[in-house]
Amino acid sequence: xxxxxxxxxxxxxxxxxxxxxxxxxxxxxxxxxxxxxxxxxxxxxxxxxxxxxxxxxxxxxxxxxxxxxxxxxxxxxxxxxxxxxxxxxxxxxxxxxxxxxxxxxxxxxxxxxxxxxxxxxxxxxxxxxxxxxxxxxxxxxxxxxxxxxxxxxxxxxxxxxxxxxxxxxxxxxxxxxxxxxxxxxxxxxxxxxxxxxxxxxxxxxxxxxxxxxxxxxxxxxxxxxxxxxxxx
Length: 232
Description:
Elements: H1 14-25, H2 29-37, H3 40-51, E1 59-63, H4 69-76, E2 80-85, H5 88-93, E3 99-102, E4 115-121, H6 130-140, E5 141-152, H7 158-179, H8 182-190, H9 198-207, E6 210-218, E7 223-230
Parallel strand pairs: 1-2, 1-4, 2-3, 4-5
Antiparallel strand pairs: 5-7, 6-7
Helix pairs in contact: 3-4, 7-8
């Protein structure tokens, strides 16, 4: 069983706490991301967008778009992107996205069956109600539409796992504290407790009408990618 950290908010406070933290870190979010991942995040984003397998011109929802990294990657590949995020601070710092909207993943301000593909980068564990968010993904996606969900991983190789844990749990909060907000970057490693195991995520997607659910480990398990197709 995963152990809850004292830096995590109470369930009833999670939405507002997460919104406030991301508002706080928005101005330097992309800079700190590059430092945290040694630039690997750009490679993982390109892989995520390509995994959609959709034709240029498709309408893509970037769920929890943040400052727009995934959105810009998708736009560069010819997609028409709509970015949605809970945090007004993140939306204010976003750039290179034509369509932005504030919204909660559990109740999206998007018409049913109106989206060709959904991207989501490192946000599943930040949703207060992940089940509701997955149901909303299924609702707004057209039959035959695709999802690509990028998340933090848990390397299985012992040496990589030790180094990963030291970096993510010890170094990242220090770096975040120097360049941004220490409390937020203490939350981010601890928030992996909210992330279900890969098989549970797969089962949740299948139960909501997705098929062909695949799970890919990226860079030795440092990140993971879920892809699936909305059944007719």
